[in-house]
Amino acid sequence: MSGTSLDGLDICYVRFDDDNYFEILQAETINYSSDWRTKLAEAYKYSAMDLCQLDVEFGYFLGEQVKEFIQRNDIQQVDFVSSHGQTIFHQPQKSFTLQIGNGAAIASRCQQKVVCDFRTQDVVLGGQGAPLVPIGDELLFNQYDACLNLGGFSNISLNRKEKRIAFDICPINIVLNHYSKQLGKEYDENGVFAEQGKVNNELVAELNELEFYQQSFPKSLGYEWVESKFLTIVDKYDISIEDKLRSCVEHFVIQIKNIFALYDINNVLITGGGVRNLFFINRLRKLTNVEIIIPNDNLIDFKEALIFAFLGYRRVHNKINCLASVTGASRDHSSGVIYNL
């Protein structure tokens, strides 16, 4: 699993005994080199030919990392490798999405069956191609009112009227990391930079008026939206980077709080890298009365990787892994391309 925040490659070795039980056996995050981080961050600017080349190159890299992970942990049994890839373009309104990390290239390096490209089929069936994690929330984590992921984007899933619904709420780390880099850090550790800033109420109010927040689900966000709609607003304001971070945190918390209230959520399981932003979590606790449940480190860091393994598990067994109630596709379906060696 490689997310939009580009903080590293998550590899999770998990056992599924059925559709309702899992056990994480090994898990590890492999940090990207500065070279890979730059390539992936700038890939949306590449020519078609260069992007095709990067797709295969990144696939080779993923396959090599999986092979080394298997060897390092002395893993004896692997049924398949499930890969999300790295999202470069996501424009479901134009019927396309692109995650690079060529599945055949992965398989050629790790010598395992590979399941990948989970989003494309959903998009061409009229769906958003995202979020895809809710099938796992529905079957593996249904004891909670809602599941909230704080990654590059924040997204939530919950069950309403016997149907799982889910959607992106707002950007999170993709924005916070962007401004932290201007202060010489890859991310705002514990939210220290944001905590030093002051809220610019005018900026927060303008962000709260973005059209996306007025739309009903299904809906999803991509980097293109962040760059063209969100950052352009923030950068209009002649304020310190710390104030921009603080104002963005306040905006994000308000948006999440609004969703909690709208769906009458009493408790929520929160995972993803944003959980480690203590200032953000403290602001969320202060502004809401919802019981916030933070699990063990493995689930915080590897829940998305775990569920993409679950998507692969269900695809290999030809079971539904994409829910129309979540994505807006014309029907439930089993998505993913399988490369058999």
From TrEMBL:
Pfam families named among the record's database cross-references: AnmK (PF03702)
Alphabetized UniProt keyword annotations: Kinase, Transferase
GO biological process: amino sugar metabolic process; peptidoglycan turnover
InterPro entries: Anhydro_N_Ac-Mur_kinase, ATPase_NBD
Keyword Transport: no
SUPFAM superfamilies, alphabetized: Actin-like ATPase domain
Taxonomy, superkingdom: Bacteria
EC number: 2.7.1.170
A GO term for molecular function: ATP binding
UniProt KW Kinase keyword: yes
NCBIfam families for this protein: PRK09585.2-3
PANTHER family: ANHYDRO-N-ACETYLMURAMIC ACID KINASE
Protein name: Anhydro-N-acetylmuramic acid kinase
Lineage: Bacteria, Pseudomonadati, Bacteroidota, Flavobacteriia, Flavobacteriales
